[in-house]
């Protein structure tokens, strides 16, 4: 992937306007048909200029001064990597440090891995003073009935509301905490949910806002850039053997995320299975246990079936989504943490991605 920006352009300029910077990364929102399926290629810049120009004259959205950076290459977010997260972070930081820093950022992104990116951004940008709202759409902007326009104008409205803080995700008339969100539908206009916390806002007349869930920012100071680390995400299934699990962690990854059952239970009667986990931990590989449940609080030790791997040193992911856990492990590895040191951070909030304790 080329580490450069395609172009930065000014879409609308108005005196005393609220300044918005849009980072366009790709995704269905700007795609067009090709003989091999949808690919980036729509005139997103022109469309956005018209949309925001019109919106900017509306009473609700006020005056806007909008700049746009289109990353190169524009990608289907299925091709995103931790390096792609870093490209977005670099654009936001460069723009924030520029001569006319924006009041808020909007990131246009494919929906497939949007929740991974929004979680990743939240860890790396705890010190960014402007809000960042990430959005995209299920249908391209050129399709009649597309959700592209309502999602972008909703993101804009959230961005200038003065109430959106940190990294949030706007989609299907709801504003969600960026590191609490997960994609729940490949087709519904309400394609995202935050299963463990309430939406931050629902659109309407007027919008209904709720208090953000408690969960402090625990990471101080600058973060090292994301680099791609070898993290294995493994789903346990009834009947999995120790030999199969062993094969799935060979060669040894830098960290393992085990998607277990319920509150973090593993088939502890399966001969040798717990030993595979114990051996990994002994070799300095952090093992994070998460749940296959859409909504879960992982509590290792609640059942005997989770206790054995907890005793071996595995840590539970509490109520984090898979996206939040995966991006967090990539973040911690990128900071140089390994093994027990990394595991110690899993249950601590970096940017409000988990509920630290339930009363
Ligand atoms: N494959 C697309 C992407 O994630 C899907 C979308 O944007 O809705 O880039």
UniProtKB/TrEMBL annotation:
This is asparaginase. Belongs to the asparaginase 1 family. Residues 230-344 form the Asparaginase/glutaminase C-terminal domain. Gene3D superfamilies: 3.40.50.40, L-asparaginase, N-terminal domain. Substrate binds at residues 77, 111-112. It is an enzyme of class 3 (hydrolase). GO terms for molecular function: asparaginase activity. GO terms for cellular component: cytosol. Keywords: Hydrolase. InterPro entries: Asp/glu_Ase-like_sf, Asparaginase/glutaminase-like, Asparaginase/glutaminase_AS1, Asparaginase/glutaminase_AS2, Asparaginase_C, L-asparaginase_C, L-asparaginase_I, L-asparaginase_N. SUPFAM superfamilies: Glutaminase/Asparaginase. GO terms for biological process: amino acid metabolic process. It catalyses: L-asparagine + H2O = L-aspartate + NH4(+). Pfam families: Asparaginase, Asparaginase_C. It comes from the Bacteria. Residues 19-205 form the L-asparaginase N-terminal domain. The active site is at residues 28, 111. Its EC number is 3.5.1.1.
């Amino acid at each position: 992937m080329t580490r450069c920006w395609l172009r930065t352009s000014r879409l609308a300029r108005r005196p005393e306007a609220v300044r918005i910077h849009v980072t366009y990364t790709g995704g269905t929102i700007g795609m067009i048909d090709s003989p091999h399926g949808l690919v980036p290629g729509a005139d997103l810049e022109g469309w956005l200029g018209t949309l925001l120009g019109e919106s900017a004259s509306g009473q609700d959205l006020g005056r806007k001064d909008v700049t746009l950076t289109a990353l190169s290459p524009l990608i289907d977010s299925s091709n995103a990597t931790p390096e792609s997260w870093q490209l977005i972070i670099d654009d936001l930081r460069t723009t924030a440090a520029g001569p006319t820093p924006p009041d808020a950022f909007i990131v246009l992104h494919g929906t497939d891995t949007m929740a991974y990116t929004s979680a990743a951004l939240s860890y790396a940008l705890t010190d960014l003073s402007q809000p960042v709202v990430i959005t995209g759409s299920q249908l391209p902007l050129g399709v009649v009935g597309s959700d592209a326009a309502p999602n972008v104008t909703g993101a804009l409205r959230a961005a200038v509301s003065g109430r959106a803080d940190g990294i949030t995700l706007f989609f299907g008339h709801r504003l969600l905490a960026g590191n609490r969100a997960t994609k729940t539908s490949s087709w519904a206009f309400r394609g995202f949910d935050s299963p463990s916390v309430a939406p931050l806002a629902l659109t309407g007349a007027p919008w209904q806002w709720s208090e953000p869930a408690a969960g402090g920012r625990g990471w101080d100071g600058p973060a090292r850039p994301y680099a791609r680390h070898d993290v294995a995400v493994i789903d346990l299934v009834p009947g999995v053997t120790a030999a199969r699990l062993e094969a799935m962690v060979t060669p040894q990854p830098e960290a393992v995320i085990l998607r277990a059952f319920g509150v973090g239970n593993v088939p502890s009667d399966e001969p040798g299975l717990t030993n595979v986990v114990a051996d990994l931990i002994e070799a300095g590989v952090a093992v994070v246990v998460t749940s296959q449940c859409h909504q879960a609080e992982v509590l290792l030790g609640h059942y005997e079936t989770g206790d054995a791997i907890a005793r071996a040193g595995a840590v539970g992911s509490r109520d984090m989504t898979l996206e939040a856990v995966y991006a967090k492990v990539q973040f911690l590895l990128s900071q140089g943490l390994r093994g027990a040191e990394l595991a110690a951070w899993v249950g601590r909030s970096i940017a409000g991605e988990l509920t630290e304790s339930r009363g």
